[in-house]
Amino acid sequence: MTHTQETSLSELDRQEVHLPQAVAVLENATSVTILCHIQPDADTIGSGLALALVLERKGIPVQVAFGAPDELPESMRELPGTHLLVPASQVRRNVDLLVTVDCGSAGRLGRLADRLETAGETLVIDHHRSNTRFGHINLIEESAESTTAVVVRMFDLWGVDIDADVAHCLYAGLVTDTGAFRWVQPGTHALAERLLATGIDGARIARRLLDTHPFGWLPMLSEVLASAKLLPDAAGGRGLVYAVIRQANVGGLRSEEIESVIDIVRTTSEAEVAAVLKEAADGSWAVSLRSKSDVDVSLVAGNLGGGGHRFAAGYTATATAAEIVTSLVDSLG
Ligand code: AMP
Ligand code: MN
Ligand code: MN
């Protein structure tokens, strides 16, 4: 890394946003590819589809994709704009403008990271504390509740009319990344109100994204939670609670069921930090980290090769579950 790039990662620069440049580059684009992060959530997909719908209406050719898995998670299939999704294998190599949404680093693009090299311009739209500023233009708002909230600010400067379809996509990211309006700040509810006023069904969107699981979710939770462990001395005595989801626990369940587990584990009052180890089909592990107030898990995940936000972060590892717990405990100090 050159000195200039290091300087661009300074705390001061991280606070900067580049709204006018972002709007200008979108306004002038002749074709756009929007990339969401691998193992997509509703914030990355909602941001990608909202922007794609707006570009489509402006007559700009646009495609949206994510590197893995092959299929869009089922809970997101009701989002407007899915007709603009293309399989990863069909993403154009040479595009005028490449936009990434909700990706803290190029690695989050998975197999599509190489498209950064062949695009004319790259625009990174994100809200991760750990964002590495891998675009030509980086629109990063660390304080934003969701990437969809950043997209709204960009749309406002651009003069975009947010109709019900676009609002549906934007609300999906807002409701999920705020934990159904648990992690809010001044302005969050005003933004939600503005989106709801377009006529979208907020209750239905939230239920589909957050509160709908097949019956098999219940025995999976029972098995996985029964083996949860509490390490009260970890994290300098603040405590770590963790659970392990093995492939054998998963059966035919979806990513939605697997991702729900951390939200139960993290409520443990005796632990500042919560972790869920999720075994992938190839034997590698994805680790979700959450903290409550004192521990910055984006730094912990960063040290272990991942990233995220202060209170929600993650990384991947190839080791045994026991080894992963040991290195996590070491990193927590
Ligand atoms: P998750 O636990 O998967 O919900 O992720 C929590 C946060 O950490 C999200 O904001 C992710 O973007 C980030 N994150 C999760 N896994 C990784 C990873 N392997 N590398 C970088 N960031 C990650
Ligand atoms: Mn995300
Ligand atoms: Mn997000």
Task: Write structural notes for this entry.
This protein has helices at about 5-10, 10-15, 20-25, 40-55, 115-120, 145-160, 165-175, 190-195, 200-210, 215-225, 235, 245-250, 255-265, 295-305, 320-330; strands spanning about 30-35, 60-65, 95-100, 120-125, 135-140, 230, 240-245, 275-280, 285-290, 305-310, 310-315. It has about 325 residues and is α/β, with parallel strands linked by helices. The chain has 2 domains: about 5-210, inorganic pyrophosphatase (n-terminal core) (Alpha-Beta Complex); about 215-330, Diaminopimelate Epimerase, Chain A, domain 1. The strands form 2 sheets. It has a 6-stranded mixed β-sheet, sandwiched between helices. The protein has a 5-stranded parallel β-sheet with strand order 2-1-3-4-5, with helices on one face. Bound molecules: adenosine monophosphate (AMP) and manganese (II) ion (2 copies). One manganese (II) ion binds next to loops.
Q: Strands across the major sheet, in which order? A: 6-7-8-9-11-10
CATH overall fold name of the largest domain: inorganic pyrophosphatase (n-terminal core)
CATH 2nd-level architecture of the largest domain? Alpha-Beta Complex
Judged by helices, strands and strand pairing, the structural class is alpha/beta
- Average pLDDT, rounded to a whole number, is 94
CATH class of the largest domain, please?
Answer: Alpha Beta
Q: How many individual domains?
A: 2
| Span of the ends, CA to CA | 28 Å
Q: Give a short account of the largest sheet.
A: 6 strands, mixed
* Strands, total number: 11
Number of DSSP helical runs: 15
